[in-house]
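Purpose: get a first structural picture of the assembly so the mutagenesis plan has something to point at.
Setup: two entries, given in the order below. No constraints added.
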Amino acid sequence: MSAIRTSAPERAFSAFNYVFMTALCVICLYPIWHVLMASMSDPTLMYAHQGLLIWPIWPLNTLGYKLVMTNRLIGSSFVNTLIYLGAGTTLNMFVTTMGAYGLSRKGLFWNGALMKIIVFTMYFQGGLIPFYLMVKNMGLLNTHAGIILPVLVSTWNLIVMRTTFAGVSESLEESARLDGASDWTILWKIFFPLSQATVAVIALYYAVYWWNNWFNPSIFLQDRGKYPLQLLLREILIKNDTQSMTQSSMVSQEQTSQYRLLVKYCVIIIATAPILAVYPFLQKYFVKGVMIGSVKG
Amino acid sequence: MTHASRAPGAIGAGAPTGRAQVAARAAMLALCLITALSLFMVYVSAVEYKTDAPLSYTGLDMIGRATGGKSNGAVHPMIIMLIAACAALAASVVYNKGAFLPCLASGTAVAALLLFRFDMYFAEQREFNFTSGMTTFGAGWYVAAACMSAALIAAVAHSVHSSKRAFASSRSGAIPSSALPEGYKPPSLGAIIARDFRKHWPVYLMILPTLAFYIVWCYGPIQGIVIAFNNFTPRKGFWGSEWAGLKWFREFFRSPFAWRTARNTLMINVLNLLIGFPAPIIFALMLNEMRGALYKRVVQTVTYIPHFISLVVLCGLLIDFVGTEGVVTTVMGWFGFPKNNLLANARYFRSVYLASDIWQHLGWNSIIYLSALAGISPELYEAAIIDGAGKTRQMWHVTLPGITPTITILLILQIGQMMSVGYEKIILLYNSLIYETADVISTYVYRIGIENADFSRSTAVSLFNSLINFSLVVVANRVSGAVSETSLW
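Result (structure tokens, whole complex):
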């Protein structure tokens, strides 16, 4: 590399650095690797196994995946998550974009006050119970709308988007207005395409929220048919409720507890795989998002 | 107070001259002191504060002891709030940055006094008892109320005065009125609003859904906070239920949960601040020292991955890994640790919580520092090298100052959240065996509110929590603005 001489302590530090970073990478990846290997292992041997797992325990077993894939609840919760994710993100983006555009316009009499009203809610909220009671009073318990509507806008995302819109060149807007464009046209034909990077990041943030969302559904939903994937995962992984999985003609009675563990591992893999599959393609947007978010609102 | 004379803008003083400033400040401090003293008098004069409650271990029982057992260990929440407000007022007067904090603090104190009175009215006699016609109580309350009202008026007057001055100086560049044609009258406020609406209604229409969201889903719950002060029954609604004064607050403060949950919340946050906060900074600094762009990229990409594991899956993994025969427990067994289920033992909960948090977010949280590091001009390093600085000195005098603003902003955000922890993660991880260290205020709110449907009590506890959070954000931001010129807003 460079010809600059390095002292002994510096070289020692450098060596330590490489070892440390490699170890860190191993620690970050190992749990996922462990689960992946365990999910393919023989359930009886796996049940007795302790400690690290570098390779699957033979004979390979795919029954766990079969059990999970053919489970009706997993399928319906996956569909539910896609519904929440699709409808939720679309609505989120629509409302947030319009609101951010309006609030970013200069010279509007009420905008200063409106921003204060909005920013205040970042620092002071009603709390869990009044929020729950609001949803209940509106008759939205146990409905899809009750999951989506209460989180229609995220203040942080709104502010980020508003900052981006405020930075779009004013001359573009003026020339569009001279051509007779309305605010609606200016927003969707000029501002929206020009701010694509931010739009992508914000949409991604909303999508991630919907993918991970389990808490609100857990207090608002009773009907298991409306559960999103993460809430079902909670029942399986945290509450240890794997009955619906292992009650199958494919598993004998005495093997139930062994398959319980296997099913858990398979569920983890199936629920994490989609994210890890799209992650390499979206990484740059995620990183960009952190940077955009750090801009002062 | 010697340094105070160079700070601009005195409280309650029109002209920012040294002598008037010192006098105003001394007056404000005296007001705080008198309020606190008279309130203490009121408190001591209570014939009996509580009678039949079991021994409390609120951890805040100093006043209880100071009253010689008259109030055996309980603290009225308003007393705490008032003392906090007086302290904030005193601190802001000494610190002397603008008029916002004095306004907030004295406003809080006045609100607390009114609440105190409100509580007296609705409290059952046996809860908080003054003999009728007692002079100490009456006098103490009136003195405190008068002092705090005076402080509030002074602070507000000062705030109005300084904002007027700021407005006047911002207008000084505009066209002088003599240059305007004869007979010109500025439009009235109503005309301005009407014209604004005529011109911009499509834009307001676009804001409408957002506004509706905030009114319904953010301010709706905020008005629902009223149930913290009444006996909420769903049939009678938010406002129709019977008033209860500060019953729920008092019950919370005397219950063992107050101390336990507050302590756990604070402990987890302090640990997070001491260990979890610096970890990504150190990681970023180490990564920054590495040569070889490719290896660096690989490390970054790999350490980001845990961030994308969903919380539920992470907790599921964790429960499995730290179980009696889990991977982590087994590996720790090699180093001589006993093979226990870590999540069944209250001693280990904080470590498990913190370690898993660092594992999940270390790489991700370092992104922002890495970009700040990349923004430091190489010329600074070259200059430092020419001056003979070694690696260590470069680190201290170039690298660290370069990322200090970033660190400050994130620190403010962190301190602002001191009293709130990610309750979702704790709800997923904890069990009744480890409530002693795992139960934080927000999980307690969740348990009594959602699981036991004890709505009013739960709302009171969460209101107490969010008030502390709110003041923490405000104070952290103000202090940082005063100290380092870096603030959030």
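Chain A has a mean pLDDT of 85.
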